[in-house]
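Dock pyridoxal-5'-phosphate; give full complex structure.
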Amino acid sequence: SLAVVDIATTLHPNTNLRQHERTGPLVIDRGDGIRVYDDRGKEYIEGLAGLWSVAVGFSEKRLADAAYKQMLKLPYYHTFSSKANEPSIRLAEKLIEMTPSNLTRVFYTSSGSEANDTIVKMVWYMNNALGRPQKKKFLARTKGYHGITIASGSLTGLPGNHRDFDLPAIPVRHLTCPHFYRFGMEGEDEAAFTARLLAELEAVIAEEDADTIAAFIGEPLMSAGGVLPPPAGYWEGVERICRANDILLVSDEVICGFGRLGTPFGCQKYGFTPDIMTLSKQITSSYMPLAAVVFSEAIYDAIADNSEKIGNFGHGFTASGHPVATAVALENLAIIEENDLMGNAVRLEAQFQAGLKSFADHPLVGEARGAGLIGALELVSDKNTRKPFEKIGRAGALASGIGHDEGLIFRAIGDQLALCPPLIVTSSDISEIITRLGRTLDRLP
Ligand code: PLP
């Protein structure tokens, strides 16, 4: 069977491999709206939109048509050495129009990791060009997720992505994770927590010397770390401190971008304006691999001047500005606009978040949290002390398996159950998601 061949052949990403050999894969065979079906025909609501990414659902024919049409016309061309193609030009124009007005330039990659690696290299290149080669360090956060390649994986602040990979491999300082429930101290309220995090940021800058720090990178709302909304005032403070110290601010919008939080981009939800943005996932609803770095004219100018001086900006990928991927992105963004899917996130936020909060009294749920159409339940062994389980991840894995049985796919991040349904969900879909989640929780021992 397919499962046997899979077990015999494939190294699965982010998987406990020996366990996978025992249990085998869940082979997903087809999609329909917010639902997917496995190879035995069993139906699941895709409560994580794939990997936080399929905004328009799993059966949008317009995206298939856009890809087919572009493949017939020009299936591939590159953008090295001044070459260009229409869909990638049109998409750049669109992204610049959609993002905050200070962002005026676009660089394409195929994945969020490559986009964040690109940001590291762009910023290093820029600071070399500006005659300040010592300004190279990055600031990031514990539990942040920025990808998995050597530079982006270094920015990521999750031990499982560092351990035994010899990461971090670039100069980066990870600051305290801005999650009050886990990192707030005894007797501290949320405002005091925010003040402590900002004081820490200032202290780290003083200790390292601002002249050695290039940029601060963060997700507006940390997602892969467990869906962790920031405390009030956090981002305004981070922005103020970065500006005061000539440190670039990078908003990694790979999950928050394109309406996940009800605003076009996550930075708008939390009131800050980045110098650079990373976009991916919902940009094509993941029907094609694509990511983009959108950045300011000042950064562009420094890079462009240097490329003339040394002859080239020696960075880029075979698939940078891929015509099929960018054509699919344009169609996908048109669908999001025409159907007001960002407005859908605004309209359904209260119902979705209240549904999650309805489990707050459950004996295993320590915290129910989220924003827009993303949320999580954190399972704990003791609600009062917030004590995690002895064996981290076992309850999460168990819940995930029961969820499958109940026809709901979510993501267990340790013992945190993350949900991020496609932006096309309806009110009755959300009721069904919450019902299936409730059944799952009730079956946990
Ligand atoms: N940045 C964020 C915020 C992400 O959530 C992810 C992936 O989940 C990435 C970057 C990396 O993207 P990719 O998996 O496409 O390399």
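Observed: The chain has two domains: 2-59+340-442, 64-338.
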